Amino acid sequence: MKIPFFVLILTILTVSAEGQSKNTLVFGNALEKYKNMQKIGTGMTIIGGAALFTGNLLYWKVYNDGKAEHSENKAKTYGKVMFGGIGLMAVGIPVWAIGKTKERHIIIEANLVKFKGLASANGVGLKICF
């Protein structure tokens, strides 16, 4: 009992140590994270759309192939492929949109920080708060 507990504690400490930022840039890690999020969302959406299209085509083919007998097992399988595609798209589209929006906000914020730094470097600055 002591060994698994010790391994669990070491694993938690290792994960927390790996989670710390090693990049010195302020917005570098966040921008990379949201770009990856956008790529993953895009990939999930494309794969989900392909699965939906393929499942729908094969489901249609089961009932419209000209044979009198229909395979219910194939129809159920193709229906599950369609629902899996819908599920992937339902997750992928929001992940894609959130990643793109957050990436855009990080870029805008990084540009504002750079602008503020340039304004104060010359000794004259203007700050407007709304």
**How many alpha or pi helices?**
3
Give, in order, the helices and strands.
HHH
The share of residues in helices is over 70%
- First-residue to last-residue Cα separation: 58 Å
β-sheet strand percentage: under 5%
Low-confidence parts lasting 5 or more residues at pLDDT below 50? 16-24
Overall outline: flat
* SS content category: mainly alpha
Count of DSSP strands: 0
Average the pLDDT over all residues and give the rounded result: 76
Provide a descriptive summary of the structure in words.
This protein is mainly α and 130 residues long. It has a domain at 31-109. The protein contains 3 helices and no strands. Helix 2 (28-63) packs antiparallel against helix 3. The longest helix is centred in the last third of the chain and has 50 residues, at 72-121. It is flat, with a radius of gyration of 25 Å. The N and C termini lie far apart (58 Å).
